[in-house]
Amino acid sequence: MVLMVPLSYLGLQRLGGVLLFLTLGFFLLAVSLTHYDPWAGAFATYAVLRWWAQPLPYGIEEMIGVVFGVSVIVAAQHTPARFAPALKGVAVVAALIQVQMMVWQHFRYEPLWMWLDKHEWIRAHGTLGNPMYAGAFIAIGGALAPVWALPFVFLGVLLSKSATAGLAFALALCVRYRRHWRYVVPLAIAGLAWVMFARTWVTWTWVHRAAIWTAAFYEWTYWPGALWKWLVNILFGAGPGGWIRGWPRVGQEKHYEIFAQAHSEYVQMIFEGGLVAFAIFLGWLWYHRHTIMRSEWLPSALALAVIAVGFFPFQIAGTAVLSLTALGMVTRREGT
Prior knowledge:
This protein is an all-alpha fold.
């Protein structure tokens, strides 16, 4: 309470009364989450404090998203045992619905907007508006599908033409059926090769992302002329909203295009939160390591981890809900 007086005064000068009240509310919510998951709560608390220290445009949206996202993870961790199978079934059914939509769209039929079924620009994108979004959703949810449904999940990944989703689904199956690796690994490799063959522009896509990440690394390690400023940027990053603020300058110089996301959750986490945010994330993984390795949601979480390398599943509403649920369920302790 003694510290809150000067902090509140400084915050009032920096943010104004309404934003200060909002920030304090989310700070208290983030701190309360540490009671249920210490490391996840610490991540949310750090996001609030980091934004408070450097309030940037668009940063408050990211800060709120992190706090609410951690809240979803904690809620999933405390799902009653009798509802856990139903939640798994919902994830699988939702993935299969996306596959069904993509099959229709592949044949130029749009079931949601039937008057558009003759337009040539219709692509197999499910209900998420983008083939990569749909492929990520199918790979994460479909990793939990029963054996009879796996061919349909593979069909959806193939229609998405997403190499990232294909790799994620292949690795998820290898982990899920690791006891039968002699049969699963060749099938997974063949399936991944089929997906990459279907996506003729996969090479350009990864070159494209490499250019984004190279420019991000340049900005993150940029020497401002003072050692302490450089250390602050390395340790604490640019802050929530820092990507969209810092990318226009570097992006225009290095890549001649502006991107609102880093196309990698890990890159954006380090860019905006620095090594501190990444260390908290690693601490969370270590804290739950035993639970993760025993969870039936491990294939789904592994697919998510792979997809997050070259995509931003937590920044798309449709994939974020499933992704956060998967993180909560894979760290859910038995007997909850």
